[in-house]
Amino acid sequence: MPSKIDEAMEIIVALGFPRGQQNERSALSLLALVQLREDGSWQKFSNPKLGIRAILDFCRNDYGKPYAENSRESFRKETMHQFVAGGLALQNPDEPGRAPNSPKWCYQIAPDVKIMLESYGTAVWDNAIATYLAKSVTLAEKYKWEREMNRVPCILPSGETLRLSPGSHSELIRDVIEQFAPRFVPGARLVYVGDTGNKGVVFDEDHLARLGVVIHERGKMPDVVMHDEKRDWLILVESVTSVGPVDGKRHAELLHIFATSRAGPIFVTAFPNRSLMARFLTDIAWETEVWVADNPSHLIHFNGKRFLGPYGK
Known about the structure:
By secondary structure, the chain is an alpha+beta fold. The protein is 39% helix and 16% strand.
């Protein structure tokens, strides 16, 4: 008698998922989404909202498959991403605009798929999956459209609209580009914009190379990089909503990454408001700047005696 893992694998193959998803990891992920244990029935299962951590716990506790902690990205990028793209699972059905780095990020079996799976092993299975497959492309496109509708539009200096992943992090990145840049570095060239859903949505690698900078790991880049060509300043902006403020450790790391730059680096931490800034006040590194989105026309300088003196003199 085939195991539930074998049955889940058969379903994945029948749904037309590519070879990269025809494996035990994906089969267990499907079983986790419907909380179906070895002694359970396809005609009676649940459909909870689960994060990757809960899926890994299910694999270990209910099937004796203790996947290593570093396999989380494989589950996320090589199984769940494809399940969502193919319409098998929903992503954050309770809050589509949830930030990609939120600990509440979750998945749930799609309603049409749940109905179709309940017929597995019965006389109507072949008809049920044929009916589902006939409309599955339309269903996948529907979910894609809903995700796109929740993206954060950002107007670049060129007038082009960039659509960032939904969430407060992207909203702050948008504010940096639309509010900070025109006030403090007008006309600056946008060299890099990171996005939690897609690292490096803007990445002018050639311009960085002309400045003497070669990037080996995009994951260590700040959220926004701009080059003020008139003053030859390289503005490195870190959104506090991604990895925190530019503290001593991050300051040293960025100094190392951009050590070969012929343009002088300026380090900026962006906050959405001053109440959040207050929580990180003791962490902010000296020789850096702070910009707060709800007070966009001011900067706070952690630069010691450089700015000591009366205003207007």
